[in-house]
Amino acid sequence: MKLSKTNYLVYRDCAHNAWVKVHKPEVYHAEPLSVFEQAIIEIGNDVDVRARELFPGGVLIRRGDAVGTAQLVDARTPILYQPVFETGRYTTACDILVWNDALAAYDLYEVKASTSGEGRSKAKDDLYAHDIAFQALVLRENGVPLGRLNLVRLDSSYVSDGTLDLDRLFTREDFTDRVAPLLDAVAVEMDAAHDLLQLPALPSAPCVCIYKGRSSQCTTFGYINPNVPAYGVHDLTRIGQSPKKLRALVDSGVLAIEDVPESAELTDNQRNQVNAAKRRRPFVEIAPLAAFLDDIRYPAAFLDYETYPCALPRFAGYGPFNHVPFQFSLHVVERPGGEAIHREFLFTETTCPDEPFVAALKASLPAEGSIVVWNKPFEKGINAKLAERLPAEESYLAGVNERVVDLMDVFTAQMVVHPAFRGKTSIKWVLPALVPSLSYKTLAIREGATASETWNAIVTGELELDEARAARDNLLAYCGLDSLAMVEIWRALLGIAAAREYREAG
Ligand code: SF4
Hints:
The chain has 506 residues and is α/β, with parallel strands linked by helices. Helices cover 44% and strands 17% of the residues. It has three domains: 3-198, Lambda Exonuclease, Chain A (Alpha-Beta Complex), CATH 3.90.320; 208-280, no CATH class; 288-505, Ribonuclease H-like superfamily/Ribonuclease H (Nucleotidyltransferase, domain 5). The longest helix is centred in the C-terminal third of the chain and has 34 residues, at 465-498. The relative contact order is 0.09. Residues 14, 16-17, 207-209, 217-218, 220-221, 224 line the site of iron/sulfur cluster (SF4).
């Protein structure tokens, strides 16, 4: 079996995982790709296709056509898209090859749907350098004369004027000098990866993620570690940042939350999580909870945004991956004990939603009182970006941001810890624990990434008229539940704060 570039990169991350990917695809792909993961793939394809326009007039190679590629390379075809190369052990497809007369060689362009610029991750650049090195070695073995090795990605500082200037949108970075020193080591690593992936049985080395928090583990962790419970010490809040503590627990055989001994060295938050799990009942810090709830001013407005992170900017003022705010749902409670009045906005025209979005906010949000959201950096960040694009609305949006209260703070600050939260603070975990009568399970759209993709399918005309109508209804139902869920969680918290058992305990 030939080693592909993708499998080599998975191997670099973890040999176990690469072996499972190749030999147990039913385990590796046991969880279907999430809508978010699918969207990343589609975005990558879109960016790839647009990047070809930087080098127009090329020949697009059919998937897997190494023979056709070889003929075109032999004929020195000036520009090739997706050329395929194989050796006895390896296979790879490049994004773009461009013949360079001056060097009498092909320049390689690897396209990534990520952004360049300040703050980019060194680890990512290292990954890209290895990615290009793999290709360079396979091309070299095929006798392809190679010139410069380049990375093409999106310029994070690019701001569209309403059109796409591809020369400014994409950066072309010469990675030749970064890749050259890696080639010998990558060749050795490729050999090792190839040989390991031929093994009929899983390598016996231990799975090192046994000492990492849940978010660092791959999807095959459960297969390799069947003795680790689905909810256990790996799910302790921020345990990934305390590897010594996790190692001490694992090495002493403690895997279930309920088995964590009193003597274990934990943070207060971790200890609260353990106690809630052991006692099988919530833990409440009544004084800070009461103070938090007292700070929410009437009319209390519960607000939720939906947005679409657009890799290739569609509207003036947008840069790569800027979020397009297309929908909000608002529930307003005017006075203590009052009903929640629902208002909503959903924009499905093909034009820029910014102005209608802010106009609808102005028409819907009360002029005073608290604006309650879940995870305030998100809504506040969207408002700040709107203010940049609509300077006339800057002071209004700044005023909105000043009134924002984050209901999630109750849970991140552990004013309430419920065993069913399992250490999570997402509304998708908090709602069923505190308000079991409300659920996302019956909805067609159950999370934000699906909402984003649904909106994109509507506005790009992928859906028939009746499908688009149903999709709109699904979006309204989903976003509506997000803001209603906050209302009901807030009411549940008011009930908890008033309950005698907690007041006495607190
Ligand atoms: S859980 Fe970690 S060590 Fe184990 S297979 Fe996955 S990536 Fe590798």
